[in-house]
Amino acid sequence: MIVAGCDIGSRTGKVVLMNDGSVVGLQIVPRSVNFAETAQKVFDAALSQAGLKAEDVRCVVGTGYGKARIPFAQESATEIACQSAGAAWVYPTVRTIIDMGGQDCKVLRTDGRGLVSDFVMNDKCASGTGRFLEDIARILEVGLEEMGPLSLEATDPVSISAQCSVFAKSEVVSLIAERKLVRDILAGIHEAVVRRLVTLVHRLGLEEPVLFSGGVAKNAGLVRRVKDRLGIELVSPSIDPQAIGALGAALLAQKAAAKG
Amino acid sequence: MATTRELEGVQPLESMIGKMEKTILGLKSKDVPLSEIAFWEALQGAYKRVHQANLEGQPVVMNGFFVPQELFHAMDIPNLCPENHATFIGQSSQDRIEQLLDPGEGYGLGNEVCSPHRIAVGQATTRQMPRPSFIVSTSTSCDQTLKLYEVLADIYEVPLYTLDSPFIDNEAAVLYAREDIKSLIHFLEEQTGRTLDQSRLREVLKISKATYDYWDKISELRKAVPAPTGGRQSIKDFSILLTCCGQEEGLRYYQARYEELKEKVDKGEGYIPNERHRVAWLYVLPMFDLKIADWMEKEHGAVIVQDSFGYASDDIVLDPADPINYLVKKPLKWAFIRQTYSPNEYSHFAERQAKLCRDYKADVAIVLAHWSCSQYCGTIRLLKEEISAQLGIPFFVLDGDIMDPRVVSSAQMRAKLDEFFAMVEASR
Amino acid sequence: MTPFKQALANRHETVLKYRQPGQKVIGWLCSYFPEEIAYAAGMYPVRLMGGSGETTTADAYLYTNMCSLVRSCLEEGFKGAYSYLDGFVTLNSCDHVRRLYDVWGPSQKTPYTYIIPLPHAISDASLVYFHHEVRQFKESLEAAFGVTITAEALQDAIRVYNKTRTLLGRLNELRKLEEPPITGAEFLEVVLAATTLPREVYNKMLEKFVAEVEARPGIPTDEKVRLLLVGSELDDPAYVQMIEDMGGLVVADDLCTGTKYFWNLAETDGDPLLSLAKRYLTRPECPRMRPARNRLRHLRELIVSHQADAVVMEVIKFCNLYGEDYTIVRNFLRKMDVPLLQLSREYNIGAVGQMRTRVEAFFERIWGA
Questions:
Q1: What's the CATH number where C108 sits?
Q2: Chain A within 8 Å of C350 (Cβ-Cβ)?
Q3: Which of B394, B397, B422 sits opposite A120 (nearest CB)?
Q4: CB contact, 8 Å: C126 with chain B?
Q5: Would the pLDDT of C351 be above 90?
Q6: Which of A10, A61, A197, C144 has a beta carbon 3.0–4.6 Å from A249's, enabling a disulfide?
């Protein structure tokens, strides 16, 4: 039985296709202005990848920021539900999920059996999000994929004191004017982002195993720092961490379709 | 006195009183609970008194939330509470709110200052309230309250009396507070040229006590399952307590409210048809989006069974036979004060909030982490640990601001609440 | 490096070095704390300060919208830097300190904690009340540590602390000169060291130092802006240094870590606890105190007697008492035609770019006028 999960976030759209419990298609596309358009585009891409047609898909569950705008979804589910379902599939005994997406950052605690027991979100402040890192990448004129690795090559990391992303950005501009090296500035920025994250984790309390999901989980600089700061190892997901939400939605679609 | 200066706030108050008149007439033509009409009549009465005194050049006092207003009522000094007034503004459009937040900030207050306070200062600098003859405030419940009235007194250039509220209400503190009240009376007599009539004060205290007794009873009724009333109505309750406690109109509201709730509870009638979640709302609802309470009821069957402002301290007994003691103890009747203005090791406010959840059989606790209220946010961890330890109910921290819609939008708050309630449902 | 700078640079080591065997260390926050009581008990009172670096754990116990000073103090606690404290005492000075106290007890391992209620008013009645609370604290300390604090011990403590006050007062007088022999940064450093070193050791160092400074040549100020510095708790002389590097000279201050700390003497006759209550209650006031007119009058006196050209008010982000005092001070200074600059800061000096721009622009305005 073929099902799909469609996660339309603030920066990207993701689709995961599953056939009898195996992933057969996974696509991530940048978001176009129109949510519905993004959804269609990523869905088509995934179908094409799996050699399937829309009619083959029994059930689609939508999630994410734009979940109400997915024309072909039969149901929608909360991001928390999808993250926890997806994480549990990737690592059944996971206890803490750190999800850093485009415009928010969530930390979830689960009971080790896929049920969420507590969560904390930080979307009021932009400085713990993918969007913030994108803006910094633009200001420093580096590619998004380079920033993480580059930040790890810092020899003299600067300390970013601003708590607010608006001030952090202007702080970066003054640091450039002071001739600080890009990699040292990046190190400071990555430190600052991890600080915000670590506070959120402390509010909930940390318990291993820990999974890091969301687009920002692909940033090697952040991953390293999260591991070092919290003194833990992170679970290595077997699929792209950015697609865990969509994966969870697909699993929920499977459940829904099985019920009939 | 106001007669020597151009009158301020005449038009805004006139317009407000007129709007309330329309509301009252509209309500009277419909079949609404008596308390609804009584609410608006009580509020309108309070504003009418201020307006009249302003026009006649009679003394008007501006006061803080926890000032013993009974003294004003006994001396016929109409009173205006700018923080309470700000809650009305807070319920209007975002445009209107910003029109007051911006001048408040522009005057020199940072945007981390409590939003109702910025609105109050914005009101003062744009002259939308009658100019007071003098101001009376308290050091409770927080530093921002302490400073707000100093700032207002500086703007208006009028005398200010600040009651030094007890941090720990031991015997020595109560003695000190008693002297303070006597000093305040002396101040009021000096400022107005009037004398406080003890028998008049006793009359006012009698009404005040009767009002508080109803509050206690209503608090008891709200423990019923299903809950007989919701979050929005609770706002009305404390608004009256803070505006006209000691006035007949205030008592009429409370009596009507009590009787309506008693009827519901006797019949076992719930405020909403399908009560799925009993919410202890630890703080107050966002004023600019009170509808969020209605939305929670409709979308999630979640009713606010009690909130921090509605919760009375059952260990404080008010006795009008000793008027000074009555006035000293009155603010402590709010459990909220214990939390905001006393040490946890003394007042056990975290335990009290857990007790709130238990007494009202709340199955979830939600704290609105009012961004511009740092000292309240500083208690969240203590509350969470206590409530989790004692009750193990889901505890959710909702970031937001009670009157500044620009901090966290209505849509964002609802999105997060959706996530929270979905999590709770899933675990049931 | 002066002995004062040395003591401050390695605060914790300083305390551990000078702590006598079996001596109890009492950490305190807020200069309204009647230190003499701890001293009279044979204890070593030490001012709590924060550390450098971020406050990620403390943020989770308090909240990110709280003052960075208290968050930093709490973070130091979590790092174990304050494991040597036998007690932590403070007052209900401000909301942020109150919450620090609420959280410190359950989250740290300090054996003894106490919060002294401090009135908001200065009056005969409030003195009676504060005297009571000061006595309660003294009795609590005695009971908790099994010591007796005699009136004689208190009188002796008062004498020792008055000596500090007199010496620092002499140093402060020198700042009134046309050419003060000491910078604001150095002055702050000297005063702060008092709250880290044992008092007798400090008094000896200070006596020597004051004599040295009195003999020093002055710093010419005709090219500098003479400043009165006021605002939130400031325990980083480097911050003052930055302002002075840009062309100012802090010739006067009304900081709780500066002149407020030593301004007035305690009376040496009568009931020492009453004397202490009176001395602390009536010292130059924090903006939490009513009535404000004394405080403003004091600012005017400082400006006139130290010939300050302008006032700088630094406010820690989220500090309510100083943040909301700004408009009151501004309106007052306007009437005196004294320029005022407000600077927002975090407890730890971070980005200086913005601050530099504002200070430079402020000085330019003053020189231009």
A1: 3.40.50.11890
A2: yes
A3: B397
A4: yes
A5: no
A6: A61
